[in-house]
Amino acid sequence: MAHHHVPGVSIAVIEGGRIAWARGFGVKTAGSADPKDAVTPDTLFQVGSVSKPVTATAMLRLVERGTLELDTDVNRYLKTWKVPENEHTTKEKVTLRRLASAARAGEAAHAHVGEGKTIPGGWNVYPEMAPAGLWTTPSDLARLAIAIADAHAGRSKVLLSQATAEQMLTPRSRRPSS
Known about the structure:
Layout: E1 8-15, E2 18-26, E3 45-46, H1 51-65, H2 96-102, E4 112-113, E5 117-118, H3 129-132, E6 135-136, H4 138-152, H5 162-169
Antiparallel strand pairs: 1-2, 3-6, 4-5
Helix pairs in contact: 4-5
């Protein structure tokens, strides 16, 4: 942590398809000596782009329920704003599949930049919640990863079906097929 100037981290380790251990290290705010500021396994961290697979999982659950379709023009679902027609959308409509494939406070830790300096205001604020706005714990992310792995292996259908997990985890070409 000192090498990277990080005041605190929380880690969850998966072993044998379960959380083997979870632990916090350091503090939530750089320079703090207050024991109440210690990072624990329950400390929330802003996980940035890790929000994307969480959002994709929620989207795929709605697809499995029949609420959404992966290959339907998203404008069918949008109410107050629509994707404007342009030279690209006339060739290929924007779909959930294309969007998903393109996306390569008290208990919360403060965000930090290099040299352990806290970001003014304590953390980043993103106007778009789905791609970067998630706050969570490593244990919650580990439980999600375990559920996705179990679905992919056919051990559980609680989160997603095996077929849907397979689609989610299969890399897609960056270029549309001709």
